[in-house]
Amino acid sequence: MRGGFAALAAFGLTVAAPAMAQGIALKPGETVVLHIDSSGAVSEVSRGPAQLNDYDRAVIAESVKGSYGDAPDDAATNATINDAMPPAPAIQRGQIRFTLAPVEGDRNLLIIENGYGGALRYQARLNNGYRTGFANVCLVKPVRGSYEYWPFKVQSVTLLSLTLSDWTPGDPAPCQE
Fold it and tell me: pLDDT tens for residues 80-124?
């Protein structure tokens, strides 16, 4: 039975590989919604202009002011600086939403919403026109949102290696390139 599961898993990865081989490109002002099925295959559900909510706008305003550190700790709290922060919206279950929000001064904020019961790991390759490189990104906890702020111009982000893994409260939420 164990070999049969491995064969099924290998088949699922083979099916997912062509879609992820090139990655999923995202431009500033754009949102993409993804689905990951039980085999790990990633499919694009929708794509369109970014729709920011009040909470996202408040996080962007605080990021620009330098209110947040470079990497989050393992606390399971919402981003808050003061009592005036609007409430964080509910995360839509069964999907992953990436939004690349342009911020004043040619900066960018990647908004990630993980609607799955597993932790989301991914890579982000940044393109600023004349060079590309991988950004440090952090694991996104189950049914949580996360933000990655880049204080420089990014013409596009390519999302690669999206996977879900087991995670329970108290487990680390590592950041990696």
Answer: 555 677 888 899 999 999 999 988 777 888 999 999 999 999 999
Which residue, among 44, 43, 37, 40, has the nearest Cα to 13 in the 3D structure? 40
The dihedral built from the CA positions of residue 110, 115, 121 and 127, taken in this order, carries a sign that is: negative
Q: Is 133 helix (H, G, I), strand (E, B) or coil?
A: strand
Question: Are the beta carbons of 99 and 111 closer than 8 angstroms?
Answer: yes
Structure tokens that stand for 176 in this block? 């990696």
- What is the model's pTM? 0.78
Q: 147, 145, 142: which is closest to 168 by C-alpha?
A: 142
Could you tell me which residues come within 8 angstroms of residue 159 by beta carbon, excluding any fewer than 6 positions away? 23, 24, 25, 26, 32, 98, 122, 123, 124
